[in-house]
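Same chain as my last thread, 390 residues:
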Amino acid sequence: MGIAILLTWWAVAGAQDDQSRQVQKWLENLRSERIEEREEADLELRKLGKGVLPDLERAAGDKDVELSARARTLIRRIRLKELFGVDVKDLDGISAASLVEWMERKTGHRFLYTEELGLRNVRVRILEDLMETGDPYSVGIDLLRLANLGVAPQEGAPGVFEIFAAPIGSKKALKVYRSAGELPRANEFSTLVLHPCYVSPRSVQAVLINVVSYPQNCICIDDSSTLVVTDYTSVLRKCAELVKALDVARSFRMSVALLEGRRGKDESIPEAFRSLRLAEMTGLNQFAPLGTAALNLQRVVRDQPGAVAPPGRAVLRFPGHPAYWVEFDGSVRSVGGPMVDRFAVLSDQDHPIRLFESRFSLKDESWMVVGAVNTGEGASLVILARAVAD
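reply #2:
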């Protein structure tokens, strides 16, 4: 028994040595000046498949430029054959039909398409960095995108997907999404409905048609301030980001409220400000309104870094005893809401006293506590502000 095992081991080792020598011969023939020898070596090495990859990887690092290039080409062809199950003769890609067959094998899904698409004749370039994601469905539809093909699930048929020419995607009965957050993770063809609030949808469309894959799939509906965009989900997310950046108010209604705050036995907070947790923030529990004032502020739309803020100031007056006035020196600017520079509260008298100064931003149209200042005799001046887009 021991002799038989030893003989078998010698036979296997001998066969491996023979193959190793043969591999080295074929690798050497890749350098040959004779095209016949190079083609024979190429064919024989590809027959060995992934088992010869370690030898090819060493050859790919050889100082001989031609040998290195041929070894890298062989590595790619062997890996692609292992992946797709077909010999990829043209390194620029495989047929779209072969890619779809691979997707069906790997995912268990069914992909439908018409003969008019001619997928047997459509070549899809393989991007190897995509193959590393590990999700055959996502990889497949990303590759089909390179051939201007879209993929979308069939409504009411789980696991069934349709492949179609992407330029006519808006004519398909695709699933409609109301926000970018709802879009599928994979690069499916979908329809996204966008509603800009402050800018003309026609103006936004003029920007988006330079972003979408096919301008005819970006539709503007003026009556309802709506944009309907049909595209790959990766493009739709870019469109949603652009609309968010573009859809900003040109002006704001800036309101300032002044309260007198004290400490007492019973809590007393005006209804409009109950959500602010004034007692927790100021240490006071009784607040009496001294007044509210508002004005319109134009946002600086083109605010370049280092630019000088436009001159002028905005002033709000609060009559009473004592009287106050609030001053905004500088500019009001921001993408989503105003950023107030040099906000100051002063006493309204012959020689005004600057009681408070700050700088802050307003974002969500809610009242916020800007600050508080002790005015003596157990009282504090509590300053609130908010901005509502016009």
